[in-house]
Specification:
Length: about 525
């Protein structure tokens, strides 16, 4: 069942024992960050700070900082359930029968896609119960966090920033930070690869004013969808409707020609002029380093609407893992794997570990079928959406547990000769990457950590060893008898367990007696 809004989600987390209320006064400058950071990194609870210095509004943070809380946000027991729905829908074209009657037979399976487009709420929207206009607007009354000592000031960090393409009218929703410049002004940091930045550049090129709305709170599926790596032109609120199983309700803004989430807690409305830029940053970012910022557009606020007694939803980014790892990283990894596999069916799994700060490192488990297959898949990933910003791609065989980075590195390094199996290239990079050679442009590294074929290493392929796995009967027996050993809780089988074989044989170097060993096989995708 879909979670209607932020306050319903908070109530659900509290019932499930996932949320703690903090009743003593806390400071939005640095103190909330330190508390939230400790909780996120230790598997602690979601937090609701009821008394925040300088504001009458409570602050909610870390609501999405675990796999279980993300599942609750999407109304499922496990995020993999949603991935399964996507996978089933992607398979429909392969089963599509010919003719009208055959197509009608698919309607029951297509029902999850029907009715998920956002819809206008009838009547007065909850988010417009309170209205600030003109001199009434004072963003300093909101409990904006100053997260790190060298931050340029308070920032809004978890708003759904809504814009519309001035040429096509298509909506974009993204999560972009906004720096407090004054009571009615915010610095808008949108990276050049994001949809909001594209809308601004088109408006700027045409000398047009760009209307902007920043929604705080709302239903949790919409919060996630705003940061999801969706293809260009795919409406984030339609995707949120798919995740929820029912449409997101929108309402017209009071001062801008944009639809905003009707059940959000707060909406900040305003406009951006083509040449109205100001210094933004520094800001302690998800890389774990300060982003120095630069000249970015200024959002001139025309109105603020909110619910009565709103809750201010926020997050903290910094050295990973933090809440963003679960909210955007792991969830997107799981949900978009079926889409990736629709293009590259040989990909078994992917994982971007938190140590890679989203774009620095991606592990790929590959069902290898011919020489050079690892490079083919790596090239493909580096050409897809925001995966193009990835800096290091490590490809391993299908039996490797990519969600256990220590095991993935062990397998990759054991099967890699740096002089032969490391490919260096160039491409687009994150604007937050301080190490690359130019702003948003730099190097890529692909490591082929798969078992090698004769065409790749010559006769040495025949010497490629099989990985060590424990006998499955022994694994099962030890698990059954663990309590008898007096060793405390069973930590479970290690990565040395044999995974379920995908093709009846461990995936690695080809069987020396197969046709593939002689000349390689076609296919793969």
């Amino acid at each position: 069942m879909a979670v209607a809004d932020l306050r319903e989600f908070i109530a659900l987390l509290e019932r499930e024992g996932e949320l703690r209320r903090v009743t003593v006064e806390v400071d939005p400058r640095l103190e909330i960050t330190e508390i939230a950071d400790r909780c996120a990194k230790s598997g602690g609870p979601a937090l609701l700070f009821e008394r925040v210095r300088g504001s009458a509004l409570p602050v909610a943070i870390n609501l999405f900082a675990s796999d279980r809380r993300m599942a609750l946000a999407l109304g499922v027991r496990d995020v993999e359930e949603v991935a399964g729905r996507l996978r089933a829908l992607l398979q429909l074209p392969k089963r599509r029968p010919k003719g009208l009657w055959g197509a009608l037979g698919l309607l029951p399976e297509l029902r999850p896609l029907l009715g998920v487009a956002p819809r206008r709420m009838a009547g007065r929207a909850p988010v417009q119960e309170v209205l600030w206009r003109g001199e009434e607007v004072d963003l300093r009354r909101l409990p904006l966090l100053t997260c790190w000592p060298r931050d340029a000031g308070p920032f809004v960090t978890l708003a759904q920033v809504i814009t519309r393409d001035p040429e096509t009218g298509e909506r974009n929703v993204g999560i972009y930070r906004l720096q407090l410049h004054g009571p009615r002004a915010l610095g808008l940091h949108w990276e050049r690869h994001k949809g909001g930045a594209a809308h601004f550049q088109r408006a700027r090129g045409g000398g047009c004013t760009l209307p902007v709305a920043a929604a705080i709170g709302g239903d949790p599926a919409s919060v996630y969808a705003a940061g999801a790596p969706l293809p260009d032109g795919f409406d984030e609120y339609a995707f949120a409707g798919f995740l929820r199983g029912e449409p997101v309700e929108l309402t017209p803004g009071v001062s801008v020609d944009l639809d905003v989430p009707a059940r959000a807690e707060i909406v900040i409305e305003g406009t951006v002029e083509p040449d109205d830029l100001a210094a933004e940053g520094p800001f302690g970012d998800h890389t774990g380093f300060y982003d120095p910022g630069g000249p970015y557009p200024v959002l001139r606020v025309t109105a603020v609407t909110m619910r009565r007694h709103p809750v201010y939803l926020t997050t903290v980014v910094g050295r990973p893992p933090m809440e963003e790892h679960w909210l955007l990283g792991r969830t997107s990894e799981r949900l978009f794997l079926p889409l990736l596999q629709a293009v590259f069916p040989e990909v078994v799994d992917v994982h971007a570990p938190p140590e890679g700060a989203a774009s620095n490192l991606v592990f790929v488990a590959l069902r290898k079928r011919y020489p050079g297959h690892a490079y083919k898949v790596a090239y493909g990933l580096l050409s897809m959406g925001l995966l193009a910003l990835s800096k290091v791609v490590v490809v391993v065989d299908e039996w490797v547990q990519v969600h256990e980075p220590a095991s993935a590195w062990w397998a990759a390094l054991a099967s890699c000769d740096p002089a032969r199996d490391v490919l260096l290239a160039k491409g687009p990079g994150s604007v937050l990457d301080h190490a690359i050679s130019s702003f948003s442009f730099g190097g890529k590294m692909v490591i082929d950590g798969t078992a090698k074929w004769p065409e790749e290493v010559g006769p040495r392929a025949a010497l490629w060893p099989e990985p060590i796995f424990m006998d499955p009967d022994v694994v099962e027996g030890v698990s059954r008898r663990w309590s008898e050993y007096g060793l405390g809780p069973d930590p479970g089988p290690t990565a040395s367990r044999r995974p379920e074989p995908a093709h009846g044989r461990w995936s690695g170097a080809p069987d020396p007696g197969s046709q593939a060993a002689g000349g390689g096989e076609g296919g793969g995708s």
